[in-house]
Specification:
With about 325 residues, the chain is α/β, with parallel strands linked by helices. Helices cover about 40% and strands about 20% of the residues. It has two domains: about 1-175 and about 210-235, NAD(P)-binding Rossmann-like Domain (Rossmann fold, 3-Layer(aba) Sandwich), CATH 3.40.50.720; about 180-210 and about 240-314, UDP-galactose 4-epimerase, domain 1 (Alpha-Beta Complex). It has helices at about 10-20, 40-45, 60-65, 90-110, 145-165, 185-195, 215-225, 245-255, 285, 295-314, and strands at about 1-5, 25-30, 50-55, 70-75, 115-120, 165-170, 175, 200, 210, 210-215, 230-235, 245, 260-265, 280. The longest helix is centred in the N-terminal third of the chain and has 20 residues, at about 90-110. Bound molecules: nicotinamide-adenine-dinucleotide (NAD).
Length: about 325
Amino acid sequence: MRALVTGGAGFIGSHLVDRLVSRGDSVVVADNLSSGVLDFIQAHIDSGNVEFHNIDLKNLEHLIPLMDDIDIVYHLAANPDIRLGTRITNTDLNEGTIATYNVLESMRINNVNKIAFASSSVVYGENAPMPTPENHGPCIPISLYGASKQGSEGLIGAFVGTFGLQAWVFRFANIIGERGTHGVIFDFIHKLKADPNRLEVLGNGLQEKSYMEVGDCVDAMLHVVENTNEPMNLYNLGSNDTCSVRNIAAIVIRETGCKSAQIEYTGGDRGWAGDIPKAMLDIKRLQGLGFEVNYDSEDAVAYTARVLIKEIMG
Ligand code: NAD
């Protein structure tokens, strides 16, 4: 199997690359290193197991030659920072929706038939029932990032319906773990490193979401791709419970040993405009394929805090 992983030098992408290499797939990575880290996959490049291309998906002509002989595309590249859309309004359109169109178009030109896509729980928008099943609708995202994921899903559906592609669309919960480069745990550790006596928490801390450990996430992706065969396969990937931001702050303070840290809440029910304060995915469809996660949300948070503290604080 020869796989192309877009965003393969990123947090989730590099874990997926680890799994693909270890099962013997031939792997090509396309990444512009805007938020990716080459070191995450350098050992695979050095051993000849990964072919790396520093390209920008916004350039269709750079993508077309990479599709030669590819069996499946795992499309993970995107802007990972949901908050950025509150300041710069075209990033998600360009790095998300347009980039996805270019991936699909270069697949069509090269007769590459299979795509697995990293979408997000934020496509469900606000006020969806919790836990949210895949058939919830209408989906009305409230962030530009969410809109770009929904636009990408729409384009994927259109290429499936019009050109006979086969797709796996994964709506991820919050994915956390080793090599994390963004997100609430990463932010808290950096804040405590800068000032061990004070921890600013965005919102009132009552935000409550599901967290999935990154190894569980990439294992679930590969399990679903191997065990489903519809033209369009849509799966929520998450854990079975939630963890509040207050609880995450307590865990990070405990794990860093910064016991004197005073928590300061910025207030309001959410961290930023477009944030969805409460989210939990229904994962029965995933479980129906015989997949169970290794970590629940709180265990995933505690584990991630420990590994990121080592990575960030030394
Ligand atoms: P990440 O930032 O670590 O990975 C994204 C990768 O894409 C990076 O390596 C970056 O350099 C690359 N990239 C971005 N724009 C590019 C472009 N125009 N051309 C080429 N490469 C480009 O983020 P991640 O957390 O690993 O996220 C991976 C995917 O999963 C993203 O699509 C993200 O939206 C999605 N997702 C992540 C989470 C999460 O909690 N981490 C949740 C839901 C969905």
